[in-house]
């Protein structure tokens, strides 16, 4: 029954309202496999310290292995009276082994160091899984870039036409942002490489147990340096919530563009039927629900981060029960991304771009005006003057409803003595794109280099 972990000094069990508030098995059960691995490691350490005989060690290890199998196949689960995953698994072990043997395992550990360690283990696995899904989305972007290595599109700032760029350049830009998110997940994984197990409730253990041995058994590089910090800090959970929220925000920016690109007005891209939805009333509709859910869920992940930080902000050292609130936000953020990322990857991989339309619109909005100004600079004109002259060209074109390349030789001469007819050479989308050939730029040769670098980076990330 609940209270079994601390019955000694209590005359009664917990009230129903306390029990209902306290219970966490509905969300901390994700830690069960990690709890059992840690219990096996703890068994070895107790034995090493002379606190278990060989037989007791073997009996406990057999019991833990059997319980782990039952947890894995679902035949053992939390009971209504179990407060949390740790209590439930101790009950399960005692049911198998009896209280004398099953009850030995709790020596020298506390749920405080247990849960801090298990959460780190869970987080490390979760960010590795998530990083692989992010890499799949980058792969989808790369496959579209491979399909359209030379397609031009209007590059935008302020959502206004700015300068023509390659579609591949634009898609890869999302890829680089997502690659940094993968890097952040790797950083977190490395920073979480210290085990709090052995910290006890806060002060460490008096039983001669070796935290380094448990750490090694559980795949950590080392034990934490400070047992108070080890049991009471949750910055790594908050960091995970941030990395996950940042990833969701980066995905959301891509999603927003998909929403815009698939509108009738833009018509830059069409979604594959398997990755779009219809309307229950409007027969013609084809909706980008994946992109919208990705965009919407990013708000939820930001909320998970904000909630966790708010939980942490007033907590004195060391452990406080508030910390139980650490799990739901990060578990939810991982779960949401595990839905969003494969759907986004499939949607991106199967999108069809109208590259003819995108290329036709690339020079619209006078997006080659900068090329006029830069041509003038190459002619020796100061940029301040060149900018004025190119701006005047735009003004004349706008008044007459024509494009820059439609200005006559006389128009050009009237606008500025520097504007020789030769300037028309730069009023060409492919030429403008090819001319931006410094590192990072939109010239096809540079974009291909970037693509190869991104592909290599994501493959080794
Ligand atoms: N379930 C708790 C948590 O998730 C761990 C238990 C610690 N409880 C305690 N009273 N010290 O944080």
Automatic annotation (TrEMBL):
It catalyses: 2-(N(omega)-L-arginino)succinate = fumarate + L-arginine. Keywords: Amino-acid biosynthesis, Arginine biosynthesis, Cytoplasm, Lyase. Gene3D superfamilies: Fumarase/aspartase (C-terminal domain), Fumarase/aspartase (Central domain), Fumarase/aspartase (N-terminal domain). Pathway: Amino-acid biosynthesis; L-arginine biosynthesis; L-arginine from L-ornithine and carbamoyl phosphate: step 3/3. GO terms for molecular function: argininosuccinate lyase activity. Residues 366-433 form the Argininosuccinate lyase C-terminal domain. It comes from the Bacteria. Residues 18-303 form the Fumarate lyase N-terminal domain. It is found in: Cytoplasm. Its EC number is 4.3.2.1. Pfam families: ASL_C2, Lyase_1. Belongs to the lyase 1 family. Argininosuccinate lyase subfamily. This is Argininosuccinate lyase. It comes from Aquipuribacter hungaricus. The lineage of its organism: Bacteria, Bacillati, Actinomycetota, Actinomycetes, Micrococcales.
């Amino acid at each position: 029954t609940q209270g079994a972990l601390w019955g000694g000094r209590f005359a009664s069990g917990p009230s129903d309202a306390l029990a209902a508030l306290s219970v966490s098995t509905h969300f901390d059960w994700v830690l069960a496999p990690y709890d059992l691995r840690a219990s096996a490691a703890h068994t070895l350490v107790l034995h090493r310290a002379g606190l278990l005989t060989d037989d007791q060690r073997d009996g406990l290890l057999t019991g833990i292995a059997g319980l782990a199998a039952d947890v894995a196949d679902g035949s053992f689960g939390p009971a209504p009276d179990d407060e949390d995953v740790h209590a439930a698994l101790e009950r399960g072990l005692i049911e198998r082994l009896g209280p004398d043997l099953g009850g030995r395992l709790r020596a020298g550990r506390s749920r405080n160091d247990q849960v801090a360690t298990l959460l780190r283990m869970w987080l490390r696995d979760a960010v590795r899984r998530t990083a692989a899904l992010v890499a799949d989305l980058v792969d989808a972007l790369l496959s579209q870039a491979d399909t359209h290595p030379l397609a031009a599109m209007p590059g935008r700032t302020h959502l206004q036409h700015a300068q023509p760029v390659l579609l591949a350049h634009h898609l890869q830009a999302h890829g680089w942002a997502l690659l940094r998110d993968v890097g952040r997940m790797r950083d977190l994984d490395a920073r979480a490489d210290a085990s709090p197990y052995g910290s006890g409730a806060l002060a460490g253990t008096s039983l001669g147990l070796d935290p380094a041995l448990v750490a090694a058994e559980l795949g950590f590089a080392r034990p934490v340096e400070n047992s108070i910090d080890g049991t009471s800090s949750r910055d790594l959970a908050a960091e995970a919530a941030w990395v996950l929220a940042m990833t969701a925000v980066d995905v959301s920016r891509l999603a927003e563009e998909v929403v815009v690109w698939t509108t009738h007005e833009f018509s830059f891209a069409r979604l594959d039927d398997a990755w779009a939805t219809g309307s229950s009333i409007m027969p013609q509709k084809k909706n980008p629900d994946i992109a919208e859910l990705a965009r919407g869920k990013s708000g939820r992940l930001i909320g998970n981060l904000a909630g966790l930080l708010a939980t942490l902000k007033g907590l004195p050292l060391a452990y406080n029960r508030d910390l139980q609130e650490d799990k739901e936000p990060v578990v939810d953020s991982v779960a949401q991304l595990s839905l969003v990322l494969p759907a986004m990857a499939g949607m991106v991989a199967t999108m069809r771009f109208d590259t003819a339309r995108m290329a036709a619109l690339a020079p619209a909005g006078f997006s080659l005006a900068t090329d006029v100004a830069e041509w003038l600079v190459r002619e020796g004109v100061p940029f301040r003057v060149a900018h004025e002259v190119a701006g005047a060209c735009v003004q004349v074109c706008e008044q007459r409803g024509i494009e820059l390349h439609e200005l006559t030789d006389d128009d050009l001469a009237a606008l500025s003595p520097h504007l020789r007819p030769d300037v028309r050479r730069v009023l060409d989308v492919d030429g403008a794109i090819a001319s931006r050939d410094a590192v990072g730029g939109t010239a096809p040769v540079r974009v291909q280099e970037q693509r190869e670098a991104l592909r290599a980076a994501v493959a080794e990330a």
